[in-house]
């Protein structure tokens, strides 16, 4: 068995076709760790039940943010960890990639975390995440029927989101 | 020299007005809450119609005034005109807006989820949507009464996001 060397030893997943959805799944968390939205378009492997899955995801990202900020070689001061920062300030990680998927992450100053899992050849999705955040503001925050802090149940938001994700390259 | 306010602020303020009146101030009396919201709308409509008809001559008849509401007044408020106007020529007018701005973001439960509580959630959503329409009804009533046309205005939301306002002129 070879560990190093060779370009792609394990098989990479098939690239999505033009007609299929381009992302695997998406999570949205608020600053207290409540999972506001979980959308799944293509997820063959499921190891945990949804509650544990959400907690795992939130914990993972919290730790990753902390770790990347602590290991930042360029900044001298240790910022206030755990507090959401303005985009561009401080050290924020935005994606990690494995041989089978790519996870992209964005946190807004209000603590809303958006996580998008796509195929590994996806390009930088930061602009897409910003667009999804805009969709969130338009269809969820401004929806008079929505109570902040509760899971999102909006048909309009789901439809627009599905449409947008289908068009992601 | 008009002062401007962000549209998001307006939307949030309206959402909060309805929510405060229905859930906090008149929690047990939705009809009272509705009347208060409509009264606020009346005042607003009164003042707005004063401002928007400053340079115009008086309206010759009721139809002209209603057409003013459909075109100029609605454009000033929502940047679009009323899409459809129907009348029975006997004092009843139906104004239909195919994508009413203040309802465009209201969206309830996705149909595939929740089975048992879907009915209840759907009713609550319909109730709240209805509450949000008292304010624009009041605006129309205030505007028309300032133009000398006392009337009663009600709203009909049988197919969202289109909504119809029914104006009945008192003779």
From TrEMBL, chain A:
It comes from Deinandra increscens subsp. villosa. Belongs to the TRAPP small subunits family. BET5 subfamily. One of its GO terms (cellular component) is TRAPP complex. CDD domains: TRAPPC1_MUM2. Pfam families: Sybindin. The keyword Methyltransferase does not apply. Part of the multisubunit transport protein particle (TRAPP) complex. InterPro entries: Longin-like_dom_sf, TRAPPC. GO terms for biological process: endoplasmic reticulum to Golgi vesicle-mediated transport. Its main location: endoplasmic reticulum. It is found in: Endoplasmic reticulum; Golgi apparatus, cis-Golgi network. Keywords: Endoplasmic reticulum, ER-Golgi transport, Golgi apparatus, Transport. This is Trafficking protein particle complex subunit.
From TrEMBL, chain B:
InterPro entries: NO_sig/Golgi_transp_ligand-bd (IPR024096), TRAPP_component (IPR007194), TRAPPC6/Trs33 (IPR037992). GO terms for cellular component: cis-Golgi network; trans-Golgi network; TRAPP complex. One of its GO terms (biological process) is endoplasmic reticulum to Golgi vesicle-mediated transport. Belongs to the TRAPP small subunits family. BET3 subfamily. PANTHER family: TRAFFICKING PROTEIN PARTICLE COMPLEX SUBUNIT 6A-RELATED, TRAFFICKING PROTEIN PARTICLE COMPLEX SUBUNIT 6B. This is Trafficking protein particle complex subunit 6B. It comes from Deinandra increscens subsp. villosa.
């Amino acid at each position: 068995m070879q560990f190093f060397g060779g370009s792609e030893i394990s098989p990479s997943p098939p690239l999505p076709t033009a007609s299929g959805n381009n992302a695997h799944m998406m999570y949205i968390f608020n600053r207290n760790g409540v999972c506001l939205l979980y959308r799944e378009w293509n997820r063959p492997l499921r190891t945990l039940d949804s509650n544990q899955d959400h907690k795992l995801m939130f914990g993972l990202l919290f730790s990753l943010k902390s770790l990347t900020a602590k290991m930042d070689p360029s900044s001298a001061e240790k910022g206030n960890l755990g507090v959401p920062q303005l985009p561009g300030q401080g050290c924020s990680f935005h994606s990690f990639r494995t041989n089978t998927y790519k996870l992209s992450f964005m946190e807004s100053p209000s603590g809303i975390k958006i996580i998008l899992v796509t195929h590994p050849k996806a390009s930088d999705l930061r602009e897409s995440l910003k667009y999804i955040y805009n969709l969130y503001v338009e269809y969820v925050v401004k929806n008079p029927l929505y109570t902040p802090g509760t899971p999102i149940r909006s048909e309009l938001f789901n439809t627009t989101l599905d449409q947008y994700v289908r068009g992601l390259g | 020299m008009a002062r401007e306010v962000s549209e998001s602020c307006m939307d949030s303020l309206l959402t909060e007005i309805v929510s405060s009146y229905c859930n906090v101030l008149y929690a047990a009396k939705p009809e009272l809450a509705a009347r208060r919201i409509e009264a606020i709308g009346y005042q607003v409509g009164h003042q707005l119609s004063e401002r928007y008809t400053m340079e115009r001559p008086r309206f010759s008849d009721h139809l002209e005034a209603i057409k003013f509401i459909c075109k100029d007044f609605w454009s000033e408020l929502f940047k679009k005109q009323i899409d459809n106007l129907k009348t029975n020529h006997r004092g009843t007018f139906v104004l239909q807006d195919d994508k009413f701005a203040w309802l465009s973001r209201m969206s309830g439960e996705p149909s595939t989820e929740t089975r048992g509580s879907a009915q209840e959630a759907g009713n609550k959503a319909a109730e709240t949507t209805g509450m949000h329409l008292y304010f624009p009804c009041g605006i129309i009533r205030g505007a028309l009464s300032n133009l000398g046309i006392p009337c009663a205005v009600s709203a009909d939301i049988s197919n969202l996001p289109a909504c119809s306002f029914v104006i009945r002129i008192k003779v």
